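Why does residue order matter? Because the sequence determines the fold. Keep that principle in mind as you read this record.
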Amino acid sequence: MNGKKLIPPGLVYLADNITAKQNILGTAKKEGARWAQELNLPPKAETVFFAGCGYQYSSQLASLMSLIRMMDKSAVGAELPMRLAALPRKLGADLAGLYSKVSTKGGDADIQPLIAAVKVLGKLGVKFGYLAEDEPCCGAPLYYIGLHKDFAQNAEKAYHKLKSLGVKRVISIVPSCTYALRNLFPLFIDGYDLEVKHFSEVVLANISGRKLSFPRKVKVTYHDPCQLGRYLELIDEPRQILSAINNIELIEAEWTSGEWSTCCGGGGGFEAAFPELSQILATNRARELAETGAQIIVTHCPGCIMQLKSSLKELKADSIVVLDLAQVVAMAMEK
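Structure:
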C-alpha cells in the first residue's frame, strides 16, 4: 500500500518537492541562494553556514500559505488545490512561485535574517563558507511526516554531498534543519562525523567582552520556537544573548515561555495540512505575546516569524515588530 495515500495532500506536496528538487517548494536552487550573491562568501570551506529552506524561501512560503488559507476558507477548500499542485510542477512551474509573482508580499525584508546572521558571524571573527546551490536539503519534513525511509535516503545523500565538498563543521540557523543535521542524521548514517552547532550557540560563545547596544531603548519579548526549545533544548542561550544587549528590556509572557512556550501553529508542514487550525494557534500566541506590552517580538525560526507576522496583522497590532534574533544582534553590533 502506498503510504502517501494516508498523508494530507499538503504534506505530500512538500515531500515530493524535497525528493525531486531538494527544497520544500520545488523551485530552482538558484532562487534560494540569491540572497547571498553580493556577500562574497567562499563557496567551499570546512565550516559552512547552512541557510536552510525556511529562510531562503520565506517569501514564497508566505505567499503559498496565503493561497492555501484563502482556498481553505472558500467553497473549494485547501485540499483540492494541494492535490492539483503537482500539475504545475510537472509542467516546470511551481505553485508558490507563480502566486508570489502576483502577491504584494515578499521582497528583501524576507531574507534579512540570513544577511544579518552572516554579518554577525563575520564581526565575531568566525570563518565560514556558504554552499549556495550545492547546499542539500536536510529533509526534516520527511521524518515528521512519517516517511522515514525517504528521510534516510535523503540524509545519506545530503551527508555524502557535504563530505564531498570538504565540510567538517556546520553552523545552522533553522531550528528544524539543525535538529535534523545534529540529532536525526546520526540515527540513520553509520560513522556520522559532522559537527553541527546552531547559530545562537556560536554567537553566545563569541560575544563575551563585546559591547552590544540596541539603537534605542525597547521592551522585547521572546518566543521560543518548538524545535529550538523543546528539541534542541536551546532555551537559555537566546535569552542570554538578549540580556547582554544594552537598551533591551526582556519581558516574558506569563506561564508560556521556555519549555512551556505556546506553539505558533507552524512547522513540520502542519500549516499546509491544517491551515485554519494553524492560524488559530498563531493568533492565540500572537495575542499572548502582544499582551506583554513588548514593542518587539523576537524569535529564531522562519516559520514562527511568518506565523506571528500574519497573526499580528489579523489582530491589528501593526505597531509590534517581529524580528529574528540574528537581526537584533546585528543591529546591536552596528556601532
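The chain has a mean pLDDT of 86.
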